Amino acid sequence: xxxxxxTREAFVAFVREVEPRLRIAVVxxxxxxxxxxxxxxxxxxxxxxxxxxxxxxxxxxxxxxxAMRKASRAxxxxxVVVPALASDTTPWVEPALGPALKAMSAMQRQAVxxxxxxxxxxxxxxxxxxxxxxxxxxxxxxxxxxxxxALGITHDV
Length: 157
Fold this sequence. Notes:
Blueprint: H1 8-48, H2 50-53, H3 59-75, H4 97-103, H5 106-117, H6 122-129, H7 133-151
Helix pairs in contact: 1-3, 1-5, 5-7, 6-7
């Protein structure tokens, strides 16, 4: 990334690369309402601070933390809503999955959704969340154990 004065082309390319992963991670943690708003505000912040963003070693991870802070501030005014994952028209989705994900900690939910749901490698998810891979592994293991327990799964599938 080239530091300096913001250029529309460089920023658009950056957003195309980073926004989908950022959106998935923040929405997984904070739900679609808070998550989408926080990502949008964060990308505006990134444009306004482009010279700073371009000098970062892990701009996606940094912007993830910015978005989570923005979502946390907004959380005082709005509740976290985890998206419904099942309805009467999708019987192939386990109806208890949504409540089980909602019962997890935010980090457990993000680890499970990013790795098991969206197919991120553990290292990719850890980089995005700004944590070590071993820390992500702990959250993933705990989240999957809680998920298996909530869904009544007694063995690995």
